[in-house]
Write a sequence for this structure.
């Protein structure tokens, strides 16, 4: 009988461990994404490395925008492309307008493609680090300061930086529902 | 081997009628409960398939609105996987494992009872969602967010129901492992166990490892929907693709859970009807274990189009292709068993032989799907539908049917009508191919999955598939008739009902006594 | 003519349309579609050969090693040599498949040196197209004739509808012989963009951006569909790509650029 009991105890522990493992996959996935740039995840805390080293290499960066769930927002890049020098910081901004009749809370999610270069695209300052509050009819300039890291491999094509703007007004005040 | 004749009398306070079935802790009773439940769910899931095929008979919408069609595809899959196939294998495990290892019952008989009775409750809840105003789940059995988060009021019930089903499977798996590891008759070493016991042991380990991961994934869906978490929404820093990783980390081992017991059944029946021992028993064990281990590192082949890094795509392509090796080894071993045997072709053998051919065809389309750049054209088309139906229907389901025909005389003491069995076999096999083979064509020609209506160039093959589906469904009514006809027969089956059958269960009388091997048998 | 003859005639008329009996993937009109097709055929032929050999042996055995023919069962039941052989040979075959597959995959994932960029956004249940450099932007949804005919109980004969379920109001126009980079995202749920003749599919995921490339070698109209379940009208959001020579494309852009300017102020 104790053989059975011991088997059951061990197996139950495995069950619990695998359940915990499924939750562990969440941070594991995040770390993996940061390392490999899967799904174009870039840094979500400000990049502060002061070893800015301008190189004689240039890369074209394209800026695009999306509005999620057909929210009543105008959201476009001020400039759709820039040719940037590797290792030098640059500024640009997006323009957002609230086309609805009420105040909205918004947040933006960045994504870079090709994904494998996401880790070299560092944001020093980004409106995506915070949420925004925007009044009806208001127009906001949302700034980004970025630098393309020196470790960027050679012979790559363009980098595309995309932001998706979400209206999260409902999510803040009530429990989550679509 | 000594024969064990059971003299134990039934206890006076043993309940009868409905209460017997509700309170039974006997592995044979519980095995029967699982098998009858599975048969019922097979018809319910099959009915949903016929609604799908009726709508797809012609282009244009004739019978259902698209939203309901999506509920049918979702529920058809959930019911077939969790209500028909998995309980069928658990039912076979319950009936056979104790007898095959010379044990009196499962390790935890009361838990066994609970594991079963969770199922009717969970499925009543699941199916009832179809009658909600907002309808049942319609995001596919894979429940990808954000679509699944848009669902109506059915969502918490579906998730609760899935949790219960998962719990039932996990408890059952713990019971199976505890039984096999602790209750084998003395002298039965692991490498002397019948191959069916081995495949169930490995399946049970897969269940323990994989089902809790599904539980995690669906709990995350629940909290994303109702408790403000954002595992799967970019707005909150999450990622819909994360769900796919977690789901398929469960999902791929799950499909091996659905096939390994079938491999064990075929590995039992082919030797019996070839009158020759299974070729390469040790290899078969190692191959099964390799398949199980490999099943944990292939999951992203269900997600090749999601935008993975190149390295990931290459890795998963290679590991997925690799699984073909141990699977091929199994097919070759079955054929080597047949080779220079002395075969007869009773119904269980017919279904097992058809399994080998048709499952292998499903394996070939699987190998094609493993090739990532080609998969970019196959993914989410009917080519995938064809592949998995080939491995699940003339694969897993044929094995279950073969097992039922094979062990029916042991369970009931009665022989089924062999002529009717053969008719059932031929009708089923012919119609299964008429149903699913054309799906390869329309998939390659460009027809996506999960659509209720299609462009007119896909009409002809869809018509053929629908006719096949109705034929297949009707053929299974013959199976039910055969079962009931058998139960009406007198008890005539021999202890060893098949000339080539081997194993401890064939040393018992037919029908097997209610309590068997209360004293363990001697093993040479 | 009685109903039966009418039925038979109709069946044969539709039977004679060869497109209805299409059994294979199209070879397509772009390098990536061609590569996918060639790889598909290679693997297919290999599996056919393996199938012929394996099933051949099996059916030989079924025919000859049967009790009714007097066969007596042999007693062999293991052989390490044989197990090694039939493990190694399949492994070698797989390596042989993996080499071209890997090369093709690397080629498909290389989006560098594209000339134009098309951003595709999936919506429930239509597509939005933004030509990033050329400033053209529009929605594209199932055309009205198809939409009317597909309603439950519409009683419209769908065989009479032009390109039923594969027609849209606004087509995507692309230049031939041009490497086009297609960026994919979605507004609400996951969709997937697929035009089989021009390239394999990729998912359109809300909040994230994916990419693939096409280089259409032959002018023509190419049709596809959404290929990721996205809700009730998943089957009703097709894609139509019209590939035209470069000069025609430039003309089309200038005609449509005005729309984009008008949208900007919304």
């Amino acid at each position: 009988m104790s053989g059975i009991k011991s088997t059951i105890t061990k197996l139950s522990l495995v069950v619990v461990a695998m359940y915990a493992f499924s939750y562990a996959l969440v941070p594991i996935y995040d770390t993996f994404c940061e390392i490999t740039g899967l799904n174009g995840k870039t840094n979500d805390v400000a990049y502060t490395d002061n070893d800015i080293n301008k190189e004689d290499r240039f890369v074209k960066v394209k800026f695009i925008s999306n509005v999620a769930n057909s929210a009543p927002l105008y959201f476009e890049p001020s400039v759709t492309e820039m040719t940037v020098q590797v290792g030098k910081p640059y500024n640009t901004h997006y323009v957002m307008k609230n086309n609805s009749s009420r105040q909205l809370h918004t947040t933006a999610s960045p994504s870079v493609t090709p994904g494998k270069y996401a880790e070299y695209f560092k944001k020093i300052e980004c409106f995506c680090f915070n949420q925004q509050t925007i009044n009806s009819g208001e127009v906001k300039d949302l700034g980004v300061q970025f630098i393309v890291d020196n470790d960027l491999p050679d012979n790559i094509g363009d980098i595309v930086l995309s932001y998706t703007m979400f209206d999260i007004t409902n999510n803040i005040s009530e429990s989550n529902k679509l | 081997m000594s024969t064990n004749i059971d003299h134990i009398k039934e206890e006076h306070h043993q309940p009868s009628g409905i209460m017997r079935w509700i309170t039974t802790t006997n592995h044979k009773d519980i095995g029967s409960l699982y098998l009858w439940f599975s048969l019922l769910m097979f018809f319910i899931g099959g009915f949903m398939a016929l609604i799908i095929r009726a709508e797809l008979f012609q282009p244009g919408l004739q019978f259902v609105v698209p939203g309901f069609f999506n509920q049918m595809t979702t529920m058809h899959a959930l019911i077939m996987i969790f209500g028909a196939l998995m309980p069928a294998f658990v039912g076979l495990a319950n009936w056979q494992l104790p007898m095959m290892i010379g044990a009196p019952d499962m390790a935890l008989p009361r838990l066994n009872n609970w594991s079963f009775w969770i199922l009717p409750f969970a499925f009543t809840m699941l199916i009832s969602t179809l009658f909600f105003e907002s309808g049942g789940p319609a995001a596919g059995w894979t429940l990808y967010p954000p679509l699944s988060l848009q669902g109506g009021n059915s969502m918490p019930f579906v998730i609760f129901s899935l949790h219960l089903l998962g719990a039932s499977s996990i408890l059952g798996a713990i019971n199976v492992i505890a039984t096999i590891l602790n209750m084998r008759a003395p002298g039965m070493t692991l490498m002397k166990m019948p191959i069916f016991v081995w495949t169930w042991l490995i399946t049970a380990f897969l269940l323990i490892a994989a089902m809790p991961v599904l539980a995690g994934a669906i709990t995350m869906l629940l909290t994303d929907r109702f408790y403000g978490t954002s595992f799967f929404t970019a707005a909150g820093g999450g990622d819909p693709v994360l769900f796919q990783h977690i789901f398929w980390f469960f999902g791929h081992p799950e499909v091996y859970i659905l096939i390994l017991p079938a491999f064990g059944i075929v590995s039992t029946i082919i030797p019996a009807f070839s009158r020759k021992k299974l070729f390469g028993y040790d290899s078969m064990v190692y191959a099964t274990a390799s398949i199980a281990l490999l099943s944990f590192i292939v999951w992203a082949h269900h997600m090749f189009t999601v935008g993975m890094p190149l390295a990931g795509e290459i890795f998963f392509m290679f590991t997925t292709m690799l699984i073909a090796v141990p699977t091929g080894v199994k097919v070759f071993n079955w054929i080597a068993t047949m080779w220079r045997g002395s075969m007869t072709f009773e119904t269980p053998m017919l279904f097992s032989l058809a399994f080998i051919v048709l499952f292998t065809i499903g394996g070939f389309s699987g190998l094609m799907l493993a090739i990532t750049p080609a998969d970019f054209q196959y993914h989410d088309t009917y080519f995938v539908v064809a592949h998995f139906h080939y491995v699940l229907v003339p694969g897993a389901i044929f094995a279950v049917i073969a097992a039922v025909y094979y062990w029916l005389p042991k369970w009931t003491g009665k022989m089924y009508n062999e002529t009717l069995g053969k008719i059932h076999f031929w009708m089923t096999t012919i119609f299964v191919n008429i149903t699913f083979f054309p799906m390869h064509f329309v998939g390659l020609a460009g027809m996506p999955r999960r659509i209720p209506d299609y462009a007119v160039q896909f009409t002809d093959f869809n018509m053929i598939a629908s006719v096949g589906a109705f034929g297949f469904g009707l053929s299974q009514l013959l199976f039910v008739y055969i079962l009931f006809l058998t139960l009406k027969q007198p008890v005539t089956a021999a202890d060893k009902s098949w000339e080539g059958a081997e194993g401890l269960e064939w040393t018992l009388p037919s029908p097997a006594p209610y309590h068997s091997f209360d004293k363990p048998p001697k093993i040479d | 003519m009685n109903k039966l003859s009418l039925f038979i005639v109709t069946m044969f008329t539709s039977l004679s349309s060869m497109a209805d009996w299409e059994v294979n993937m199209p070879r397509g009109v772009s390098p990536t579609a061609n590569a996918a097709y060639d790889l598909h055929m290679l693997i297919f032929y290999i599996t056919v050969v393996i199938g012929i050999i394996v099933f051949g042996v099996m059916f030989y055995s079924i025919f000859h090693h049967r009790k009714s023919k007097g066969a007596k069962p042999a007693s062999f039941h293991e052989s390490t040599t044989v197990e090694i052989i039939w493990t190694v040979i399949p492994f070698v075959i797989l390596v042989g498949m993996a080499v071209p597959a890997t090369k093709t995959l690397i080629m498909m994932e290389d989006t560098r040196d594209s000339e134009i960029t098309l951003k595709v956004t999936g919506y429930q249940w239509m597509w939005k197209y933004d030509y990033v450099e050329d400033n053209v932007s529009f929605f594209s949804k199932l055309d009205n004739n198809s939409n009317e005919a597909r309603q439950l109980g519409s009683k419209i004969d769908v065989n009479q509808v032009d390109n039923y379920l594969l027609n849209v109001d606004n087509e995507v126009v692309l230049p031939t012989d041009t490497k086009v980079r297609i960026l994919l995202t979605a507004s609400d749920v996951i969709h997937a963009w697929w035009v089989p003749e021009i390239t394999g599919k990729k998912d359109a995921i809300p909040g994230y951006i994916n990419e693939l490339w096409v280089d259409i070698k032959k002018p023509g109209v190419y049709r596809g569909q959404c290929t990721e379940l996205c809700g009730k009208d998943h089957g009703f959001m097709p894609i139509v790509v019209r590939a035209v020579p470069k000069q025609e494309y430039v003309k089309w852009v200038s005609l449509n650029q005005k729309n984009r300017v008008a949208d900007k102020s919304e």
The radius of gyration of chain B is 23 Å. Chain B touches chain A through 50 residues (CB under 8 Å).
